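Query structure, 131 tokens:
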């Protein structure tokens, strides 16, 4: 499954006449209910890669099922937060619950190693030129 694509604005679309105030139209209690009050983030950060380990059971809340669908390929916590349009603090609580249930696996991000020594690269290049 590929992550959802960004929606582009329509060029002929008029902007909203009255901009909404921050928090207007949203239910602030909903974020607490999504995480069920759990505060254990299990050491997750924005760059931790999350990947699904099992099929979602039917009894999962829709937010957790969405996380499992999105994480069929590894995604970072920041990407999940953006795709779900939820704050990272809420996503980290959801991920902690899924980790505890064994439905997802958290991996450290892949770090690029330092560049190899220049003399090694030159030796390889000269060896290839001799072939």
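Result returned for the query:
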């Amino acid at each position: 499954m590929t992550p959802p694509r960004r929606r582009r604005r329509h060029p002929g679309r008029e902007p909203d006449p009255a901009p909404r105030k921050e928090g207007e139209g949203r239910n602030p209690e909903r974020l607490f209910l999504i995480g069920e009050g759990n505060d254990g983030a299990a050491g997750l950060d924005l760059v931790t890669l999350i990947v699904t380990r099992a099929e979602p059971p039917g009894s999962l809340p829709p937010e957790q099922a969405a996380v499992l669908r999105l994480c069929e390929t590894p995604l970072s916590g920041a990407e999940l937060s953006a795709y779900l349009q939820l704050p990272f603090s809420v996503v980290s609580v959801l991920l902690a619950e899924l980790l505890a249930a064994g439905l997802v696996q958290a991996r450290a991000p892949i770090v690029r190693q330092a560049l190899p020594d220049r003399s090694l690269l030159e030796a390889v290049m000269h060896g290839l030129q001799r072939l």
